[in-house]
Request: fold
Amino acid sequence: MLDGRQLAATMSVCSDGVSSSDAILLATAGYDHTIKFWEPHTGVCKRTCQHQDSQVNALTFQPDRTLLAAAGYQHVRMYDVNSTDMSPIINFEGVSKNVVGVGFLRDGRCMFTASEDRSAKIWDVKTGGLHCQRVFQVDQPMTCIVLHPNQVELFIGDQAGTIHQWDLRSDQHDKLIPEPDAAFQHIDIDSSGRQMAAINSRGSCYIWSLSDGATDQAPVQITPKRRLEAHTRYGLKCRFSADGQLLCTTSADHTAKIWSTKDYSLVKTLEWRNKDETQRWVWDCAFSSDSKYLFTASSDEQARLWNLETGSVVRTYKGHTKALTCLAFSDHD
Amino acid sequence: MSFFDDAEWLQSHIVNSFITSDDTGLCEMVMSSECASSGAAAGDPSERDTYFEPHSIDIVMDMDIGGHRRRSNTSQRLDKLKKERKNAARIKHIIWQPNADPLPDADRDFVFEKKPIVIAERPKTSLLTEQLNSLDLSDNPFTEYSKFDGRAHAGVPTRRINIFLTMAPPEEQAFPMSVTVVASARVSQLIGLICWQYTSEDREPPLRHSPELYSLHIAEDDGEVDWDFPPLDDRETVAKFGFSVLALVETEQTEVTVNVDGRDGQDQVTLSLKKRNATVAEILNAVVSQRPDLAPDNEVELALERADNSSTAASPLSADTRLSQLACQHFNLIKTTSARKHKDTAVVEEPNFSGQMSAMEATVYQTFKVNMLSSLVIKAPIQLGISGDRVEIDPVQMRSSLNVSKFLSKPRAVTYQIDCIMECRLLDVKYGGRAVLRLVYMLPSDGGYKHHDLEADLGTAKEIVRKLEYILDFRSSMNRKTYLQQKEKRTLLGTLSSGK
Reply:
């Protein structure tokens, strides 16, 4: 077992591009049509990919961490994590509007997307064929999508403030409308599949507890638990930490807030302020797997790494030339 | 080839062959000026056979001296298109198709199987925490320079340079370190980047802790440092140089001796400076700290003058002159009264005084943000780009949400060849440090003159005027001479008529 210092040394030796021996992956993207890979602990940009003709709405790593999926206008592009190439290797097309959310089933075989063209789609990543291809239509443009850890239920938010629950096995679907006309911007489910959080454009964050259905085929039961007035302005993202103990909400009010999921009390407000500038809209966030650190991506063209114990910025990732709207992070296999 | 008996023709032919076969452009820079002067010195030109024009008309001293000769735009664009096509061919496209044969219900259950929820054992401390704790940022004091690493950028011009490391152990010296740098970085930042890469690659021996202690020298392909040339000026941008090989050299300690008139006669102070760009002011401070008795008082100020150069009259050096510009290590300390100093600095100008532009600097493409004043009172922000052979005016997109701007005529993007530019002068200095300058140009169609009035802050305005004046003086086109003559005539007439 290498100790940290040796590891850091071996990692920085292979400085050409990003390599899979880099156990930690961090990618950021936004409006400047580029995706940057960073070495998180040093703050050094290792590679820049081009994402032509479109901003990036969402980023996520494939479960086996060999591909990075970037959702943009009318397409999802996949980049090889282990190459130094600037261009994507696969381009998924056939969506007429912005793709707003992208994710993978745990086995990496299928990818799911949600789009402003009112459809959610399941794509076969491995073969590109039609075998597991599925589609689900709603009557409003979608805003976000998340997969329940049971791998068969998707939760999709739309601009009218509805959350759709779509069962991939039975094709059954259900609706949840806690607050009409306030679009949910992001939904997240913790890794144990016990709680779901969703943040809307008014800055309110709803928490539900989830429980298994009566039978194996029955959908997950949703029980309202809590409503947090998390932010006074537009809410953008809410994410659970890996251990489910913390919830982070980010907003247009230039802050990210950390909540304890035990009693939903505010643990910390992450604000960054210089003498004449502040952090701008905080668009995305990601916890480290031990919940000690948090990455944020902000409109001020920078991503930051926060120490959650002290609330201070530990690293700043500078290099983008326009607002950052999304990031992807993975530090475990 | 007996009829090639004209020695001068042969010499010129050889020179031209050198120039045409040298891609770096250095031969062109050095030789075309040399042979021009030697040609002028040679005897009566009428005696020679005029059929053999000594200079090839194919070779025109062009303005982008110093760098690589640029390839034509078309071939660059074609190359780019070709590359894009090649890249596009490698991308696999998966297009959504309606599935004519959807999964039967029974299969759906099989394909999308409900999985048990695995709660992965998570380590108490993540890899990230471990790395953050183990990494002391002071391990690599050059981290701030990593942002100039060209490998981490896309769509930005970069330069790949092989750097020979003269501090490496002898058996490794033959192997250069390849560095890719953003072309817009300065040489000092390139040195920082080299130090960062060197340190992050764990090379031995460790570098000293400041990039200021290193300089870049021109080197041969085999790594031999060309000591005949001074180190690259660290304030220049990398883009200006076309070198693919350079050598990183630890700056030696420079011994500087200063002769002083102490109370007990002539004396000498020896300083050893480590910084390659120590200024005269820093040397003075060092002298005073060694010899407190010399500290200046109200009446007297201290200055340095060169002690090694007897041919030119010694004159005090300005305080921000850098040692590297002087190529001199012996100085006299002189005491000047404030009055003398003022007089002297007004008269004497250091040849290398940093405020002055060199031919290199003046012809380098540079952009300025200025406002264009039109006949209406509206100001339109534009970008003014000046290079050795043209002046470009590009409108800047206004961010204002007002629709008013749509109705007003926006300045169009125009490019003027430098030969069409007649004059650039400061027209008016306004309250609040703004200045208006006038750019007079000739219409190539009918030879008439027109002008643009541009507004900028005083510093920028002065810089634009100076830069353009330099380029114009350098080019001295016929059109401009005519213009200046006409102008002179007009002013003469003006003074005459007002005299009456």
The mean pLDDT of chain B is 74. The first helix of chain B runs from residue 7 to 21.
